DNA sequence: CAAACCGGTTTGTATTGCAAACTAGTTTGC
DNA sequence: GCAAACTAGTTTGCAATACAAACCGGTTTG
């Protein structure tokens, strides 16, 4: 087994589960592209129900990857989420692991066993 | 939101959960590099306990992504796993989604909201 | 022949992702 | 002016599942 394959697999095995979950990865990805985003926007952008979005945001907040700001837009409540520095780092780190997997391990079929 | 970002996120949201789990992704990745692998080898290569490896292999088998062959090596039982065509396709597809995410969405910090 | 080892499978548990139900307030229709 | 519908979320309940620990059948070793 090649060294690069070895470390790519180790990377995969150690991914941050908080980031790895597709819904949260989507949220972080969207947030990484903007200064902040409103709840309603995230709902559509990530195709999540309000319930799921709410709970995933709570987990991301608990993990320090995003901040949640609650405010009023006129008379209506409004929630804004933003990625933190720590969140950016976690996302970047996650993406590095994926990149390693993709670039270091060939798609190829044949190879030598063990 | 850019179109490429949109489809990258859709890709992430629709990943095959059977492949997405790190332990199973590791297994499939290892199997994709060889014709087959023995249980004991997978155990080390994927840094999995026997119990976990056993149950993940069962799930992959149930999903048709790998085949399990049981035989005797001398007097001892031995299990071999191999990736199927369907498994190869699922892995390739999964990797395509990742690649799309990484290549289409910039790491960048700033951007315009919504 | 007992103890340790090999090669796994089964079982138990704690986590968690998701949907559905709920809460709290606001606007609209009549 | 008040009931019904809508907005903006949170909480709750449940089914799935990842992992560890216990277990099991057999084999080798001391």
Structural class of chain A: alpha+beta
Strand content of chain A: 15-25%
Spatial order of the strands forming the largest sheet of chain A: 1-3-2
Largest sheet of chain A: 3 strands, antiparallel
Helix content class of chain A? 55-70%
Spans of chain A with pLDDT under 50 lasting ≥5 residues? 110-114
Give Rg of chain A in angstroms.
18 Å
Q: What is the residue-mean pLDDT of chain A, rounded to a whole number?
A: 92
β-strand number of chain A: 3
Straight-line N-to-C gap of chain A: 6 Å
What do these coordinates show?
- Two copies of one chain form a homodimer.
- Chain A is of the alpha+beta class.
- In chain A, strands 1-3-2 form a three-stranded antiparallel beta sheet.
- Chain A is 58% helix and 16% strand.
- Chain A has helices spanning 3-13, 17-20, 22-32, 39-45, 50-62, 85-104; strands spanning 37-38, 66-73, 76-83.
- The A-B interface holds A 1, 5, 8-10, 12-15, 20, 22-23, 25-26, 29-30, 32-38, 41, 45-47, 88, 92, 95, 98-99, 101-102, 105-114 and B 1, 5, 8-10, 12-15, 20, 22-23, 25-26, 29-30, 32-38, 41, 45-47, 88, 92, 95, 98-99, 101-102, 105-114.
- The structure holds a DNA duplex (30 and 30 nucleotides).
SSE map:
Two copies of one chain form a homodimer.
Chain A: H1 3-13, H2 17-20, H3 22-32, E1 37-38, H4 39-45, H5 50-62, E2 66-73, E3 76-83, H6 85-104
Helix pairs in contact in A: 1-6
Chain B binds a DNA duplex (30 and 30 nucleotides) through helix 4, helix 5 and strand 3.
């Amino acid at each position: 087994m090649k060294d690069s394959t070895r470390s790519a697999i180790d990377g995969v095995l150690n991914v941050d589960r908080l980031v790895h979950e597709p819904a949260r990865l989507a949220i972080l990805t969207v947030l990484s592209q903007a200064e902040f985003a409103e709840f309603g926007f995230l709902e559509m952008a990530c195709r999540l129900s309000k319930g799921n979005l709410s709970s995933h945001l709570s987990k991301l907040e608990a993990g320090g990857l995003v901040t949640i700001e609650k405010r009023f837009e006129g008379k209506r409540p409004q929630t804004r989420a933003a990625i933190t520095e720590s969140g950016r780092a976690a996302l970047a780190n996650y993406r590095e692991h994926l990149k390693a997997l993709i670039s270091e391990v060939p798609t190829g079929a044949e190879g030598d066993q063990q």
